[in-house]
Write a structure and sequence with these properties.
33% of the residues lie in helices and 10% in strands. It is of the alpha/beta class and 272 residues long. It has a 5-stranded parallel sheet. The relative contact order is 0.12. The N terminus is likely disordered.
Length: 272
Amino acid sequence: MVAVEHRPHAGRSKPGASSLARPRVGVAKLTSCDGCQLTMLDLEEQLLDIVAAFEIVEFPEATSNRSSGPYDVLLVEGSISTPDQAEWIVELRRRAGLLVTIGACEPAWRAAVYPRPDLLETLPTSTPISEHVVVDAELRGCPIDPHQLLELLVALRTGRRPQLPDEAVCLACKRRGTVCVVTALGIPCLGPVTQTGCGAICPAYGRGCYACFGPREQANVASLHAWFREHGVDETSANRLFAGFTAYAPPFREPAASATRTAHRKDEPSHA
């Protein structure tokens, strides 16, 4: 999903149309861990350039100055977990020319970062932003890749389509010369079905990809799951591989849910 044709507010110029008109950018937080916002602050050397090119009018993680909009670009982190948030995201959408979701806390991908998710009352009923409003683009990851954020902002400022990758992590491994952990070490890896963006960090350090950037388009999860089973991975362990950071992503949801049901059965007290 990268539909980034800008829809400027009435009376505002399109980003890139004038070197003098800085697009207004807002950052909003719903139910999330704040990690993606911190990633934006970690850009450090690029921050001055960003501020020079964009007017940052709303960013609670960085400043106490607040703005209710309008926004040319609104970056939203997190999921909808309360009725108030459901109303707020509709209002934010109305004020935003372009709405971009950021990170895996947005539960279209649902980051499984809690050791006991059942203790969070709102987690089972939290919903993706995309179920409430139109989302123009998304930046994935836990956290997002700062280079993809920069690419998105530069593209919006210059009026072109952002070049965000939709290829498997396996290709990133090949580019950096990383030996395949599956063929060389026999380690299960989700790289073939995961969208690149992390730089293939995990395989570079001898561990399998756990899909923090979510499934790539047309990911053949069933085939990879079958391959795991054929090569000695038991059913429960194969399902558990998909129950990580992006367990709620539609291609991963079925095996991840199966792993969760198995775990719950093990936690149930025995009546024998």
